[in-house]
Design goal:
74% helix; 316 residues; mainly alpha
Length: 316
C-alpha cells in the first residue's frame, strides 16, 4: 500500500524514503502517539521553563546552571528532531520523507545525541570540581572555560557525525526505500543499500565505543570520585543529600545511555530482538531524558525550584 505512493525510482539514491513507524503496531499508531505526544509537551514545557528561568535570573549565571541551560537546549533540539515527524506518521499517515530530509534528520539525531553526551560529561566534571575541589571551583570553571567547553561539545558532535552523511551518500539503494523505523538514523538507512555497508558498521562502532563509550567511562569515574569524597563528610545529613542527588543523576544518565546502546548494538547483533521493541526503545532514549532532565537537574535544584514557585505565585 505504502510503496504505491512512491515513484518507481531505481536511481543511485531514491528521491524519497518511507518511514514505516513501529513495525507490527501500525494499527495502534493512533493510540501509541498519545503518550509520546504527552511526553513531548512535558519536555517542551520543562526545558523551556528551565531555560527561561536561568536566562532571566542573573544570580543563576553560574557554571552549574549554565551547563543545565546547555543541557535543556540540547534536549529541546533532540526531541524536536524526531517527535513532530513521528506524530505526523502516527496520526496523519504521513510516511514520506525526502532523501535529503532523511539525511538531515539523521545528522541532527546523531550530532545532538553526541553533544548531549558531552554535556552530561561536562556536568559530571562540574560536580566533581564543586565537591572535590571547592576552593578552586571559580578559578577552574570561569566564564571563558565554560564557553570553550560548550563550543567543544557542539563541535565534537558535528565532526564525528558528519562522516555518517558521507558514508550514506556513497551507497546505492537500487530502489529500496522503506525504513522500518519512526525516524532516520545511520544504520537504519545503511541497511537498505545494495552494496557493502562494512565501512558504515566499522565507523559506527568506532564512534560509539571511542566517543560515547569514553564519555560513559569518564562520567562513571567522576561520580566515583565524588562518592569517595561524600563518604568522608562528617555529617550524615550531608551524605544523604549528596547520595540522593548523585543517585538521581545516575538514574537519568542510565536512562539516556542504556536504551541508546541497546538500539545501537541491536542493529548489528540483535537479530532476535522483536522490531517493535527495538523501535520503541530507540524512541525512548530520545524522549525520556528530555522529560526527566528538567525534573532531576532543574526542579530538584533548590534555587530553580524556588524561582519556579515564585514565578507561578507572582502570576496569580
Amino acid at each position: 500500500m505504502l510503496s504505491a505512493s512512491v515513484p518507481n525510482n531505481t536511481a543511485f539514491h531514491p528521491s524519497t524514503f518511507i518511514l514505516l513507524g513501529i513495525p507490527g503496531m501500525q494499527d495502534q499508531h493512533v493510540w501509541v502517539a498519545v503518550p509520546f505526544c504527552s511526553m513531548y509537551i512535558l519536555a517542551l514545557v520543562g526545558n523551556g521553563t528551565t531555560l527561561y528561568i536561568i536566562m532571566t535570573d542573573r544570580t543563576l549565571h553560574e557554571p552549574m546552571y549554565l551547563f543545565l541551560c546547555l543541557l535543556s537546549l540540547t534536549d529541546l533540539v533532540l526531541c524536536s528532531t524526531t517527535l513532530p515527524k513521528m506524530l505526523t506518521i502516527f496520526w496523519f499517515r504521513s510516511h514520506l520523507i525526502s532523501y535529503h530530509g532523511c539525511l538531515t534528520q539523521m545528522f541532527f539525531v546523531h550530532a545532538v545525541f553526541a553533544t548531549e553526551s558531552a554535556v552530561l560529561l561536562a556536568m559530571a566534571f562540574d560536580r566533581y570540581v564543586a565537591i572535590c575541589r571547592p576552593l578552586h571551583y571559580t578559578s577552574i570553571l570561569n566564564a571563558t572555560v565554560i564557553g570553550k567547553i560548550g563550543l567543544a561539545c557542539v563541535v565534537r558532535g558535528l565532526i564525528f557525525v558528519f562522516p555518517f552523511v558521507i558514508l550514506i551518500e556513497r551507497l546505492p539503494f537500487c530502489g529500496h526505500h522503506i525504513i522500518p523505523h519512526t525516524y532516520c538514523e545511520h544504520m537504519g538507512i545503511a541497511k537498505l543499500a545494495c552494496a557493502s555497508i562494512k565501512p558504515n558498521t566499522i565507523y559506527g562502532l568506532t564512534v560509539a565505543l571511542s566517543v560515547t563509550g569514553m564519555d560513559v567511562i569518564l562520567i562513571a569515574a567522576s561520580y566515583g570520585l565524588i562518592l569517595q569524597t561524600v563518604l568522608r563528610l562528617p555529617s550524615k545529613d550531608a551524605q544523604f543529600r549528596a547520595f540522593s542527588t548523585c543517585g538521581a543523576h545516575i538514574c537519568v544518565i542510565l536512562v539516556f545511555y542504556v536504551p541508546a546502546f541497546f538500539s545501537f548494538f541491536t542493529h548489528r547483533f540483535g537479530h532476535k530482538v522483536p522490531p517493535h521493541v527495538h523501535i520503541i526503545l530507540a524512541n525512548l532514549y530520545l524522549l525520556v531524558p528530555p522529560v526527566l532532565n528538567p525534573l532531576v537537574y532543574g526542579i530538584n535544584t533548590k534555587q530553580i525550584r524556588l524561582r519556579i514557585v515564585g514565578f507561578f505565585v507572582g502570576r496569580r
